[in-house]
Design a protein that fits this description.
The protein is α/β, with parallel strands linked by helices and 308 residues long. It has a six-stranded antiparallel β-sheet, with helices on one face. Strands 6-5-4-7-8-9 form a six-stranded mixed β-sheet. Strands 11-14 form a two-stranded antiparallel ribbon. Helix 5 links the parallel strand 7 and strand 8. It folds into two domains: 75 residues, no CATH class; 190 residues, Rossmann fold (3-Layer(aba) Sandwich), CATH 3.40.50. The relative contact order is 0.22. It is 31% helix and 30% strand. The protein contains seven helices and 14 strands.
Length: 308
């Protein structure tokens, strides 16, 4: 009857493992997101510990398990710079600013350069840690009206071709933000929402700089107004930042690029236990702290695996 005893023992072990798994599941499933620490006033950065970070999913306070500064061995990053090929060629006066920004990035940051047109991204330089090579690949936009039908569809194209990586992944888009595929301006744009959802699922932060395009749409107040709103929405909801100065071309991109660079140096990897649903999907979360003079900037939703 030894075989029967072994069967009973195996069944007991399997049952115990199932109970343990269920107990662990009840606490939540681990998910990760990149969080940027911002100061409201001044440049001095206070120390933020794991105990200072609060994560809520609806009314539920979630347990945080890791809060790791993305520095040293964890400083790796992948950054794509996407330029709208429908922009005014006056962007040429800003290219040196972008080159200096690329050359000034840490050696741990891989940079790629692409041009958005016809709903796709033409790769000028694939991700590389050779910053001089990436900077050299910059060129003037073509400046043809409507050549980039939708910067949001173009970003989706890039994200589909972007392999998963251990490093954090971020995008800086230079675009007028006008979505010529969506004619109902002033109403929620489904292409923006779809792009946001894909970025949140992949954990990609989207930053943007508004720059005027060419053609009639470029001086249409209501189209540029909604375009800037769409860019701001996409950046805010993915944990990035949107930069613009009214509806014209900034005198210099240096302040924007310096801010972006500073944010890259103030990022953390946050891990917490989220409550899963019956199906995998995006879940709304809120990341905050009570530390004075500090804001935690993160995506407003994270991909959570299905519960068991």
């Amino acid at each position: 009857m030894k075989w029967l005893s072994r069967v009973v023992l195996l069944a007991f072990v399997a049952s115990a493992l199932a109970v343990a798994a269920a107990q662990n599941q009840s606490e939540g499933v681990p998910v990760h997101m990149v969080v940027t620490v911002e100061t409201r006033h001044g440049s001095a950065m206070p120390d933020i510990s794991q105990q200072d970070v609060m994560v809520n999913q609806g009314k539920n306070r979630l347990k945080t398990t890791e809060w790791l500064p993305l520095k040293g061995d964890r400083a790796g990053a992948q950054v794509w710079i996407l330029i709208d090929d429908g922009l005014n060629t006056s962007l040429g006066s800003q290219l040196d600013d972008i080159r200096q920004f690329i050359n000034g990035l840490p050696t741990t940051t891989a940079v790629g350069v692409g041009y958005m047109r016809d709903g796709t991204v033409e790769i000028a330089q694939d991700l590389t840690n050779d910053h001089a090579k990436a900077a050299k690949s910059l060129r003037l936009p073509l400046g043809n009206p409507g050549i980039n039908s939708s910067p949001y569809i173009a970003l989706q194209d890039l994200m589909k071709r972007w392999p998963e990586a251990q490093e954090r992944r971020e995008v800086l888009m230079v675009t007028d933000g006008i979505d010529r595929l969506w004619e109902e301006d002033g109403i929620e744009d489904p292409y923006v929402d779809e792009t946001r959802d894909q970025a949140q699922k992949a954990g990609i932060l989207v930053f943007s700089i508004y720059s005027p395009g060419v053609g009639h749409y470029s001086h249409s107040y209501w189209r540029t107004n909604w375009a800037q709103s769409y860019l701001s929405q996409l950046s805010d909801e993915t944990g990035g930042e949107s930069y613009y100065i009214m509806y014209g071309t900034p005198v210099a991109y240096v302040p924007y690029l310096n801010d972006f660079s500073q944010k890259l140096g103030r990022q953390y990897l946050l891990t917490f236990l989220a409550r899963p649903g019956k199906k995998a999907g995006l879940q709304k979360v809120r990341v905050q702290t009570e530390v004075p003079n500090v804001d935690l900037v993160a995506a407003d939703a994270v991909w959570v695996p299905a519960g068991q």
